[in-house]
Amino acid sequence: MITLDLCLPDTRYPIHIGRGLLDDAQLILPHLPQRKVAIVTNATVAPLYLERLQRGLEEAGVSVLPIVLPDGEVYKTWDTLNLIFDALLSSRAERKTTLIALGGGVIGDMTGFAAACYQRGAPFIQVPTTLLAQVDSSVGGKTAINHPKGKNMIGAFYQPRAVIADMTLLDTLPQRELSAGLAEVIKYGLLGDVDFLTWLEDNMAALRARDYDALAYAVRRSCEMKAEIVVQDEKETGVRALLNLGHTFGHAIEAGLGFGTWLHGEAVGAGMVLAAALSHELGWIDEAALQRAVRLIGAAGLPTQAPDLGLEAWLEHMSHDKKVESGKLRFVLLKRLGEAAIVEGVDAAALERVLTGPYIQRAD
Amino acid sequence: MITLDLCLPDTRYPIHIGRGLLDDAQLILPHLPQRKVAIVTNATVAPLYLERLQRGLEEAGVSVLPIVLPDGEVYKTWDTLNLIFDALLSSRAERKTTLIALGGGVIGDMTGFAAACYQRGAPFIQVPTTLLAQVDSSVGGKTAINHPKGKNMIGAFYQPRAVIADMTLLDTLPQRELSAGLAEVIKYGLLGDVDFLTWLEDNMAALRARDYDALAYAVRRSCEMKAEIVVQDEKETGVRALLNLGHTFGHAIEAGLGFGTWLHGEAVGAGMVLAAALSHELGWIDEAALQRAVRLIGAAGLPTQAPDLGLEAWLEHMSHDKKVESGKLRFVLLKRLGEAAIVEGVDAAALERVLTGPYIQRAD
Description:
The structure is a homodimer of 364-residue chains.
Chain A: E1 2-7, E2 12-18, E3 36-42, H1 46-59, E4 63-69, H2 78-90, E5 98-103, H3 105-117, E6 124-128, H4 131-137, E7 142-147, E8 150-157, E9 162-166, H5 175-192, H6 194-208, H7 212-232, H8 247-257, H9 264-281, H10 287-299, H11 311-318, E10 330-336, E11 339-344, H12 348-355
Parallel strand pairs in A: 2-9, 3-4, 3-5, 5-6, 6-9
Antiparallel strand pairs in A: 1-2, 7-8, 10-11
């Protein structure tokens, strides 16, 4: 096991990365202000991992309330969030009861937001069970639910007390979800570390074969980079927006197709292709660099073409992006491989060429 | 106009107290990161004050989105909160759009919570239109909505950028609401300043006659005391709970009768009588002190008897209090007039005597 420390102005917390961590209650106990927790998970993860986590805690004298939600991005709503509140209030959970998120990004985001709001703030711990959650959504304190008019529109910045990333939990992850997680891993290479990008090209086969060492390195390097950026800008007033590479296009794909049709990571994969293509259109990266990005995204098992939403729908969905300022779209684009920048006032013709170009699926 | 400064670790903001402040857009402009605001108000306040506030801002070049909600504590729910989100998203409000709460405690709490959650945090400003909101709920950053199982159970600590308390807005406040606000004013005297309590006894008639100078002094002294406590303990891990004097009983009254039957301030008034009676039962204050508290609460036009909920219902409702720790009720009680303390493990027999005693309304 290795442990990274995320030090923020008001708090610091460990990110534990290793194997078999789910059974080690000692990683959780120091963070509990009282020996009572609620484990929030979903109907897919519960049969696989709930009992192991619950037993370890109960053997250590912790009272456990399991809360099992339906599985899927379509359930990342207020109604589902309210199931958590109902369960907490019915069992008289207090403001010092710790919420443990056992699941992927949807569970982590909803549990974190529930913790942020329950009695104005209860402690919480992330136990991510998907690669995407391990490398990205469990770290950094972004929590949210979706609104019919936009993804993650209602939420809070609220940090966990600890993140526990157990590589062996990825054994049961469907291949499609593994690829979705790799999208966020590739993102870190593209936006900030060309050496890591090269490492990913060399190790993509090992990652997709779930080699624990390769996965642990990818998770570690991703979390290190994320931590570096979050420390500089916890509330996303500036540099943190770089972590949104591929996400402006990606969120539009998710909203345009209906949340849950494509996985978030798949939308981000195709979104990064569009971001790279737009960077190329603007003359910032050359064709070879664009192709290298597209190839790596494809090698991860991700789509390299976005669905054809139609120009108007693209612009409409992107206009709900949280990065919009004074009505202007802002994109995260590539200055070169390994360096991203936030760009406002992108040339409309270049954007239109990308949204009608070769990285958009043709209907025929 | 006088201005208090509330300085917290992460932020500081002014509390302006005076007359005719509603028309002075200069008090708001310095706090707007962009010239776009949403004014959240209710159907009662809108016809009285919305146009004045809106016009002043529009004349200063600010684009204004008015959001008018139904009026009343029963609407302090997720469904109403969602009306705010719908309006913000439909009009493409951004994360730098400022929300202005124009109304009483319900509007302030909901607008603040909406601002806390909208795109993970938009700026907001409080323009309280009731005495209760001016002396208490608009200051200190507590925001929330109710849940069927408990008041203010879902919320956030989220500070406004400014608070603007205009005494002349109290002209249109119904007498019953003025009394409800005085409950929180009396609270400050009881919990921390016996000289202020004496001042209140001497000036209760002037306050109820809406003498601007008397009101301004009461608002100022209340905000000063609240600010002092909030600065010590923004997130209520300790001393801030003192501000809950009368609220454990009061919340049980509101929940027991159904939210909105009694005004919050009325419930706090009767709740403070019960807290004083319990303090007397425990031998901390003598009969004369208890009578002095009861008399002042009555003089403010507030109920000095609580409804007869029945012992079981009292205990059930109080068990949902946010101050409960490890299953134990905690009360804020009076060591003497002008000094309160947080007490755990109150003698059950003493509590029962209070909840079946002379300060409970008899059914006959």
